[in-house]
Design a protein that fits this description.
Elements: H1 3-10, E1 21-25, H2 31-39, E2 56-61, E3 64-73, E4 78-86, H3 95-109, E5 114-116, H4 122-127
Parallel strand pairs: 4-5
Antiparallel strand pairs: 1-2, 2-3, 3-4
Helix pairs in contact: 1-3
The structure holds coenzyme A.
Length: about 170
């Protein structure tokens, strides 16, 4: 995501009042805070690998990061909303909804056609317009065990993103 595009998808620019929630793209240097938010829910959220920081929207209240959510873009066709976390002290105030909506706005701007998520918070995502695939079919997943790392091989390549240029456009 370019910083400007993500910022404009996040929220209208204005300085927040005390206690007000500000949704904005994550900034350099915020990896630790984002990781800490995700680390609050080890049973619910995948802890590793995480999307790169530039894929995250965050929620800030009085200078403190209280929520985060990533839009992981696989291709022009498909992106995943993941790593959604809101600190327990700030839940129930619509922060997750705002984070999801900011990711959806950004995905629309990028003309991505489908958004997916894997979640136990069904009602939350239904309120944001998500529904079972094609209303009647199931999205199936097969988890593959990672092979042990081969010291002679380079590290695995991450799936294509918008940063990979025009070659990554078809899905
Ligand atoms: C799920 C979570 C992100 C919700 O954050 P939040 O800021 O409290 O959510 P919102 O205030 O925007 O809630 C909006 C709606 O989502 C639903 N919702 C909220 N928390 C939920 C939960 N834990 N499970 C299921 N639905 C939930 C509610 O229906 C709520 O509607 P309401 O306002 O009519 O009650 C937060 O509880 C959290 O971080 N949980 C642990 C991590 C997790 O489960 N992440 C989601 C996996 S992708």
């Amino acid at each position: 995501m370019s910083e400007t595009e993500r910022a404009s998808a996040a929220a209208p620019a204005s300085s927040p009042a005390p206690g007000e929630v500000k949704i904005r793209p994550a900034r350099e240097g915020e990896s630790k805070a984002v990781r800490a938010l995700i680390g609050l829910f080890p049973q619910k959220l995948v802890q590793s690998p995480l999307p790169k920081l530039k894929y995250f929207m965050v929620a800030e209240v009085d200078g403190r990061l209280v929520g985060c959510c990533a839009l992981d873009i696989f291709s022009r066709r498909m992106a995943e909303i993941r790593s959604l976390s809101v600190h327990p002290d700030f839940q129930g105030r619509g922060i997750a909804t705002q984070l999801i909506e900011a990711c959806v706005r950004y995905a629309k701007r990028r003309r991505i056609r489908e958004l997916m998520t894997i979640t136990s918070s069904l009602s939350l995502f239904e309120k944001c317009g998500f529904s079972p695939f094609k209303s009647e079919r199931l999205a199936l997943i097969r988890q593959l065990e990672a092979p042990p790392p081969d010291p002679l091989q380079p590290p695995p390549v991450r799936p294509a993103t918008e940063d990979d240029g025009p070659g990554a456009e078809s899905a």
